[in-house]
Amino acid sequence: PESSPVAGKLVVEAHFPRxxxxxxxxxxxxxxxxxxxxxxxxxxVLLILADHESLEKVRSIVGLNTxxxxx
Length: 71
Prior knowledge:
Elements: E1 20-27, E2 30-32, E3 45-50, H1 52-62
């Protein structure tokens, strides 16, 4: 979201759970494979792989409140 607490932080600074991995980042119609040193910007769309137990923690970190899962 626009007001995400991770905007402006490096991926490594977001402190995602160990069981979660940022797989892909979409920025300005470009697809990027992020690394720990990638800065997350407002408007970035993240594809995150996480187990079910970590999902709520990930959503909290990025500032999302409603569940959105793929089965």
